[in-house]
Specification:
This protein is 43% helix and 15% strand. The chain has 84 residues and is α+β, with helices and mostly antiparallel strands. The chain has one domain: Aspartate Aminotransferase, domain 1, CATH 3.90.1150. A four-stranded antiparallel sheet has the order 1-2-4-3, with no helix packed on it. The longest helix is centred in the N-terminal third of the chain and has 26 residues. It is elongated, with a radius of gyration of 15 Å.
């Protein structure tokens, strides 16, 4: 039972990752870059310098979207957003 459950979870996570990659390609290709993870749950977006991060976070929050800034995970990651 456990192995079947893990296999199903892997399939679901892979499908969700693919959905996210498609959305990023469609909507974010001109404002961010990213690598497709071969494992793990997170995609790290590197936002272009022309976008003010503080404004991005406040606008997202005003629309009910909570973004995870990279700097809460690593001090040198000010231009990154972690997606899960």
């Amino acid at each position: 039972f456990y192995e079947e459950h893990v296999a199903n979870v892997r399939i679901q996570l892979k499908e969700r990752r693919q959905f996210m990659i498609c959305a990023l390609n469609k909507y974010c290709a001109d404002v961010a870059s990213w690598d497709i993870p071969s494992g793990g749950l997170f995609i790290w977006l590197k936002i272009v310098p022309s976008i003010p991060m503080k404004k991005l976070f406040s606008e997202a929050l005003s629309k009910g979207i909570l973004l995870n800034p990279g700097r809460i995970y690593e001090a040198e990651s000010d231009r990154y957003i972690r997606l899960s």
